[in-house]
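Sequence in, structure out.
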Amino acid sequence: MIEHYSITATPEKIRERFAVDVPEFFKPRYNACPTQLLPVITNSAPEGVSTFYWGTSPEWSKNKSLSEKIINTQVEFIHDKPAIKKILMKSRCIVPADGFYAWKRAGKKTRIPYRCICTDQELFSFAGLWEEYEDTEGNEFHTFTIITTPATPLVASIQERMPVILSPKQESIWLAKDSTETDLMEILKAYSADRMSHYPVSPRISDVMVDVPSLIRPAPASDQFGNLTLFD
């Protein structure tokens, strides 16, 4: 499961990389987490950055476990679930990012956080799906999920799954209104391991209330309690 990621680029860099308008209120996110309003670019409005809730809105997320918030969609489920396939053909988005976090289990109660990045592109995107909902008062809001795939050996050394990372060419296919199901499924694959790297980061990344620049800096391998560990 992908529970945290980062998008730390300036509005100017995002505008240049994705050729989109970026809202003035955009700010870097060093610890993007579920239920937060986060930037996406949709197939229905590819000319600009929108802000959708990741998984579900805070109001709808009360008393729900992380898995119930539907923050990830496994690519294997798209084949098996007609409802997801329908969303695939209608409501796609890309999620701008420059890294994602994964936790390596090094004992029964020990997890070590790592940040995974692409070495061949500073800014990239995850393949995502979005939906529109109405609450009980008739207010509309939008949510998105990140599509995941079995991890490459690099990421698999930390955890079993990783987000689908798109190249600029694949982003164009993903957002194109005339893309076929075959076109879309063809690009839902794991990003090449030889174009990625990872490094340990501070255990503070586990705290959804912390969103500071130091979170993306390399740190000695330590567990979620801050205890240094030899498992690296």
